[in-house]
Amino acid sequence: MSEATRRANANRIRLMRKILGMSQKEFAKHFGVQPLAVNRWENAKQIPNEYRMRKMEQLIGSNNLYKLDILIRDIATKGARQAVSSEIKKLKQEGSDHSD
């Protein structure tokens, strides 16, 4: 699994938990794991098994899951645009520094 996919899954889990209004401890208890496991899921250090992922998705509901996926895509797109914009600014600055 690529790092980008791991990050997307981590963001998805964090947002699902927040939408449900649960702390990491509450979320962990609901899914029968230790809070450290939830922390590791949300930081892309570990991936929950497929059964738990399906249970999370069922808990949040398909309509909210669809909205969540759109939000994650928009965040990723915005982040990429900001990174490109930042690099362009750096290149412009370097160009003006060398024109003296």
Automatic annotation (TrEMBL):
Pfam families documented for this protein: HTH_3 (PF01381)
Classification via InterPro entries: Cro/C1-type_HTH, Lambda_DNA-bd_dom_sf
Organism, as annotated: Bacillus thuringiensis
Signal sequence interval, chain numbering: none
UniProt xrefs under SUPFAM superfamilies: lambda repressor-like DNA-binding domains (SSF47413)
Protein name per its UniProtKB record: Transcriptional regulator
SMART domains per the UniProt record, alphabetical: HTH_XRE
Domain HTH cro/C1-type: 13-68
Gene Ontology terms, MF aspect: DNA binding
